[in-house]
Amino acid sequence: MLHVAGLETAYGDSQVLFGMDFDIAAGEVVTMLGRNGMGKTTTVHSIMGIVPPRRGEILFHGTAIHGLPSHRVAMAGVGLVPEGRQIFPNLTVRENLVATAMPPRGDTAPWTLQRVLDLFPALTERLSSMGSQLSGGEQQMLAIGRALMTNPSLLILDEATEGLAPLVRAEIWRVLESLRAQDLSILVIDKNIAALTRFADRHYIVERGRVVWSGDSAQLTADPTLQHRYLGV
What we know:
The longest helix is centred in the C-terminal third of the chain and has 16 residues, at about 165-180. The radius of gyration is 17 Å and the shape is globular. The chain has one domain (about 1-230): Rossmann fold. It is built from nine helices and ten strands. With about 230 residues, the protein is α/β, with parallel strands linked by helices. About 35% of the residues lie in helices and about 25% in strands. The strands form two sheets. Strands 6-7-8-3-9-10 form a six-stranded mixed sheet, with helices on both faces. It has a four-stranded antiparallel sheet with strand order 2-1-4-5, covered by helices on one side.
């Protein structure tokens, strides 16, 4: 579904990505791991067209999307839950959700307002609340719901549970496992290795702007030295 090869991206004279290579298959959950500042968010921004790459290719369903503006990438079927959530603070929960609604793709069941509320019951009683009035956990639920309302075939979550209370983190993991069961392709960036290895198919570790390791959950959990070398503080 997604093929990234030789990706190089820079902010002005400061180069961040030095040849990123990875793939995500249809229906697969993939994680991107690594310490802060190693290029994970820049990779997401390159995919989404927020920061155009200087070199390399990004193919989505076999079509090149590198260099496209963000709205074209979203219309192609890539939904983003950005770091920091970035919901619309001056819109209500309902308005945040319906503002991004797009038609379904193919024969998959469409994401509607009611379906999002069924996934996140806590948002039902907050439909008339402004985005700025929500807790951090409610904002993350809203950010995920907003991305799902675009009816994506690939969902990207940047720092999926950062800064959230344990009970809210558990709810987010439950939701992601539910989406996985519905064969939605997902790319997750997060630091909770224990949770990620429970449901993700494969993992990529990023170091200084390139992938330095890839493998499945069994391989990752079986090698504590690998985690200490690339993921420890």
